[in-house]
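Justification of resources, computational component.

The compute hours requested in this renewal are based largely on the per-chain cost of generating structure records like the one below. Each record pairs the submitted sequence with a full structure-token output. That output is archived, and it is also reused by downstream analysis tasks.
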Amino acid sequence: MNKVREIIAYEDHFENFLKKQSKKVQDKIYKILEAIETLERVPENYLKHISGTDGLYEARIRLGSNIWRVFCFFDGNKLVILLNGFQKKTQKTPKNEIEKAKKLMNEYYQEKRRR
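The structure output for this chain reads:
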């Protein structure tokens, strides 16, 4: 399968989130990520820009009536950096989760500038 973009995780936030999920949820998350890596045009029900943010996206995972979100952003046009994830229990994405993701995104770019 040809990859259109490469996905990497920033620090261990995504891995920590993943470890807490059941095998079934982990499989579903990997399926969505594989779609994001391989599809030229990723459907919005898999990856959606978070309005009011500067380039923050959420990978959208759904299993039955449960919903999870994993924050990410593009670095150039190929790289998707996975940040924190959470299980969504309300209609709106919690502000504190978005703030945490923004903070991680800023840290990533600050580190990159130092290299």
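The chain has a mean pLDDT of 94. Strands lie at 6-9, 47-49, 57-63, 66-75, 79-88.
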